[in-house]
Design brief:
The complex is a heterodimer. Chain A is mainly alpha-helical. Chain A is built from 15 helices and 2 strands. Chain A has a two-stranded antiparallel ribbon with strand order 1-2. The longest helix of chain B is centred in the first third of the chain and has 24 residues. The chains are: A mainly alpha, B mainly alpha. At the A-B interface, helix 1, helix 2, helix 3, helix 4 and helix 6 of A face helix 2, helix 3 and helix 4 of B.
């Protein structure tokens, strides 16, 4: 009986809440995206439905549910139906190993980061299968382009974080969080002043890795400047041209959920996760609430950056995209590992 | 069930919940979505901006994409090899562990150089 309550019941409730919070954050992000886009382009954006237009995503979801769920006759039916789900699921599943607080983690796996890469790389199947099953030229081209792009940048994503794990000596994400922010080690001395603590964040210890990770993260989530999967001017809507109703919405959801999970990984690996120089212990037995708040603020700041970039930087051309991934980021990533090794031996970090 | 496997129970639950949510969305929209009466047969054709469709969508595409997929498998496996090395970096004699990986990375870079010189990544060249 205990097994069913402690090992199935509570985790089930916890996961259900986290998954739904993630979906609600997606709705918020869609609203934020449109408002920030409007702000950057000097117009108003959605402001009619509810205060500040905050209920706009709700109206959108209701509309999408009520639209006809069209499965055209020319598509490969079973694949066409499961493809959108395959895109959305990995983003939610990879949140399972992210520590949102000292004890707020669904599964504290000792292979944390490998689990994330294993799961998030499955997202490419949703796009490939969707593009293929649609049996339409735009979809196929968008799907193939996007597949090649995502697998190319996955290598950079994998390479860029190795430096972090050379410093943390553990693939468990909770260990990576705890090793940041408690003071930097230099030449065998422990500096615990405020500067030492700030410099202990991985963004300062691994600046090259951080930049590489962000660039690869943009490409993995198909965001501008790497949104060639749905280059509207050339491909109508890319791989989801033939999808309608909630199937289209699932792709949309998947894209934003992937943005949230990439953001959450960045916060965990480089920005100190749920810690903030001792502030995370505030609130006594309610400190878990403070920790979630710290995590959320960092995450939202990062999401704002994602949106900001989307409405500021133009799209890459396809050959430029592939050249950047294979001929620039890949060697820099390898060099960063060697550099980290050398510096680690010199400074005894 | 071993203790290590118990750690993965929540992961299994997460997969079930994510799958359940996605499935619920698809089924719900199929159930409550409107259905058009007297739908035009043109709805069942692929969207190509209204132009008459002349060829099948599943035509041949550039072999470059296949090469990229092959390279991905090669390099991704090399990357995975680097993770255990990163974790045990401090546990072995520094010069040993560093030279070993330096040799590995140099070989990897040599392969990468060969790939670049072969022109595998030259997208702009006409076929």
């Amino acid at each position: 009986m205990d097994f069913w309550i402690d090992d199935i019941g509570w985790p089930f409730i916890k996961i259900f809440i986290i998954a739904n919070v993630a979906l609600m954050m997606v709705a918020l992000l869609v609203w934020a995206e449109r408002r920030v886009a409007a702000l950057i382009q000097d117009r108003l954006g959605p402001n009619r439905v509810g205060p500040l237009g905050l209920l706009q995503p709700v109206a959108d979801v209701i509309k999408l549910f009520l639209k006809e769920d069209l499965t055209p006759g020319h598509v490969n039916r079973p694949f066409f139906i499961i493809a959108p789900a395959l895109t959305m699921m990995p983003a939610i599943i990879s949140l399972a190993v992210i520590p949102f607080g000292a004890s707020l983690i669904i599964a504290d796996l000792d292979i944390g980061i490998l689990f994330i890469f294993a799961i998030s790389s499955l997202a490419v199947y949703g796009i490939t299968i969707g593009g293929w099953a649609s049996n339409s030229k735009y979809s196929l081209l968008g799907g193939i382009r996007s597949t090649a792009q995502m697998i190319s940048y996955e290598i950079c994503l994998g390479l860029s974080v190795i430096g972090v794990f050379m410093l943390s000596k553990s693939l468990r994400l909770q260990d990576v969080v705890l090793m940041q922010g408690d003071g930097i080690w230099l030449f065998g001395e422990h500096y615990t002043g405020i500067m030492g603590k700030i410099l202990d964040w991985n963004i300062f210890k691994q600046p090259i890795g951080f930049i590489l990770f962000m660039i690869a993260g943009f490409a993995e989530t198909n965001r501008t400047p790497f949104d060639l999967a749905e280059a509207e001017q050339e491909l109508a809507a890319g791989f989801h041209t033939e999808f309608s109703s909630m199937k289209f919405a699932l792709y949309f959801l998947g894209e934003y959920a992937a943005m949230i999970s990439i953001g959450a990984i960045t916060v965990t690996l480089y920005l100190g996760g749920w810690t903030f120089f001792g502030l995370e212990n505030l609130g006594g037995s309610f400190s878990w609430l403070t920790q979630i708040l710290i995590f959320a603020v960092k995450l939202l700041a990062l999401q704002f950056f994602f949106i900001w970039v989307r409405w500021t930087i133009p799209r890459f051309r396809y050959d430029q995209l592939m050249r950047l991934g294979w001929q620039v980021l890949l060697p820099i990533g390898l060099a960063n590992i060697l550099l980290t090794g050398v510096l680690k031996l010199i400074f005894k970090v | 069930m071993g203790a290590e496997l118990n750690d993965y129970l929540p992961v299994l639950l997460t997969i079930l919940i994510a799958g359940g949510l996605a499935g619920a969305f698809i089924v719900l929209s199929a159930v409550i979505g409107k259905r058009a009466r007297n739908a035009s047969p043109r709805r069942d054709t692929p969207y190509e901006c209204g132009m008459p469709i002349i060829t099948d969508a599943h035509s041949r595409f550039s072999v470059k994409f296949y090469l990229v997929a092959m390279l991905f498998i090669l390099f991704d496996i090399e990357v995975v090899f680097l993770y255990p090395w990163a974790v045990v970096f401090d546990d072995l004699p520094a010069t040993l562990i560093f030279t070993e990986m330096a040799v590995f990375i140099v070989i990897l870079l040599a392969g990468w150089l060969f790939m670049v010189k072969k022109g595998v990544l030259r997208w702009e060249k006409a076929e």
